[in-house]
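Sequence in, structure out.
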Amino acid sequence: MKILMVGNGGREHALLWKLRQDAPTAMFYATRPNPGMEPLAESVDVAPTDVDGLATWAEGNQITLTVVGPEIPLACGIGDAFRQRGLPLFGPSSSASRIESSKAFAKDLMEKLEVPTAAYRTFTKWPDAEAFISETGGPLVVKASGLAGGKGAIVCPTTEEALEAAREILKEERFGNAGSEIVIEEFMEGEELSVFGITDGRHVVLLLPSQDHKRVGEGDTGPNTGGMGAYAPVPSIRPGLMREVRETIFLPILDGMEAAATPFRGLLYAGLMLTAQGARVVEFNCRFGDPEAQVVIPMMDSSLLGLMVTVARGGSIADGECHWREGAALNTVLASEGYPGDYETGREIKIPAELEHRDDLLLFHAGTRREDGRLVTAGGRVLSVVGLGKDLEEARGRSLEGADAIGFEGKLFRKDIGWRALTALENQEA
């Protein structure tokens, strides 16, 4: 078996790590892999966004399965290009990927299918958005409709902040073309939950729920980022919630997309808010979340590859299921100082050798590169430090131990990942 991994971040490193466990005798390839991925796969010097180039390379090298990590290649049509050549690929078509690449499309779809989500309006002109915000008042959430690297959603407690956010996106083009249309929606109160579903277009296997931490600062303060950490499982989930999520969110969306001749096959991610009225959708993604993948995947005790191959070949996963290990996983993201704004790269990273060989700690590279024989920073989010333990508290301790031990100038990380769950558990014990 020959497997190609498209993408080279922390999510792709975690996926590659798991697939090698599932198929230890397979041959693995990756598009311009980061230093953490290099020992696991042969490098393919083709950009992840070069759809035609990758299709030609995969065809020529008789690739058995291609797994796409990032959203941009999917939005660019890599799924369509591969399937036109009869090449099995795990990931949706470009039209189905609109569920992430256009928040306006996703919101309209949810409204039509009566999938629970926040009330919203969409705008392409600043005066219209200004009038709506002034009349409605805060708190509101202002979102760039297009792909903005996980930074396009701005929570605005006041009317003035909502006006500023809409102005920056629409008039000042803060997110470029991704912000040519914006979604303004009501602010939802509650805890966030991330749920991944592997789907063949009709049936879905839900994976272990996790909770992401989007804000850069401790206590969930500061601007949104691509994610500063995550943990799984989530102890606060009430009985029956996952059945509700499947029946009121995932299955209606899959049925609706199939009816619209844009069936979704691959990984459907639902970012949810657990409100007093029940689970409501914050957003959909067309791929694994990052950093949630780095805690969900290590908890898998069954084959991820088997499900992926079946979906990629157009088969049914009606009888598919996943098994999970006991315990918990918690991920602390090490970021560059200044992230999610401007930051410097090229700073040397020191990783103690003993961290690389522990069974209770995993290091997934994100923004790293080799420079003159040194490992240096190459992005806003640099490393994912995943602690594994018998419970969330033990996993958190191991993750923070690893985060403290790794060194680079300007290292930024949150020390409170999992704080909501841990506080709730402490209150229960008291």
